[in-house]
Amino acid sequence: MFPSDKPQLDPYPLSPYVAWAGKRNRDPILEVFKERLPKNEGAVLEFASGSGMHINYFAPYFQHLNFQPSDVNEEVFENIQQLTQQTGAKNVQPPIKLDLTQPGTWSVLSEKKFDAIFCINLFQVAPIALADGIMACTESVLNDSGLLFIYGPFKVEGKYTTPSNEEFGETLLSYGVPEWGLKDIADITKAAQKHGLALKDKIDMPSNNFTLIYGWA
Ligand SMILES: C[S@@+](CC[C@H](N)C(=O)[O-])C[C@H]1O[C@@H](n2cnc3c(N)ncnc32)[C@H](O)[C@@H]1O
């Protein structure tokens, strides 16, 4: 399932490239979650789950939490559920369709509230406008003391942070897909502020990535 050599860049959620990236980032993200996810019973939502490799990897470490995967693309649901069966995790719910650009689809969450929400490797292949949807949806379902975790590569104050961060950003741009490219943390934080949320922490992660942690302002 996980190629050892870096495959060609391909954002399709079931691609070898996305599997390769997930294998590299899941343990560092797990370490952040061990520190920062609720220690008591609670519910966790993932936006843009893709293959489901992260949520199914994390869930067994947090038996006191209930995990809800989601994605806009229903094609990935079978894969998410297969992984849940393979791990035997009882605390991962069947995936739900959530389009972060379409508030109408969020009604599937009805009155549910979450103590944590996370989203991994979405922004470099999505328009910055998606930040507004992420923050609006978070505003409607995040509990009072809840946190939103956004993991990925970003620019800081309009600049690449390292040569390899720049190389990755420029590679994305070279594909000519308008929404691809590294987004600026300030723009995501601006969207957060419109919805009553604030950047609480910015954690440096391996390979020039960040975990951004947002909570109520
Ligand atoms: C590069 S994949 C990352 C998947 C997974 N988080 C990971 O790290 O392996 C990006 C994911 O974002 C999802 N996505 C793109 N636009 C979305 C939207 N508007 N709402 C919800 N999910 C979206 C895609 O379907 C895809 O699964």
List descriptors.
217 residues, Rossmann fold, 33% helix, 24% strand, globular, binds S-adenosylmethionine
Write a structural description:
- The protein has one domain (16-216): Vaccinia Virus protein VP39 (Rossmann fold, 3-Layer(aba) Sandwich).
- It has helices at residues 16-36, 53-58, 77-87, 130-141, 163-174, 185-194, and strands spanning 42-47, 65-68, 70-71, 96-97, 114-120, 142-152, 154-155, 183-184, 197-205, 209-216.
- The strands form 3 sheets. The protein has a 6-stranded mixed β-sheet, with helices on both faces. Strands 3-4 form a two-stranded parallel sheet.
- The chain is an alpha/beta fold.
- Helix 4 packs across helix 6.
- It starts with 15 loop residues before the first helix and ends with a strand.
- The protein has 6 helices and 10 strands.
- It is globular and about 40 Å long.
- The structure holds S-adenosylmethionine.
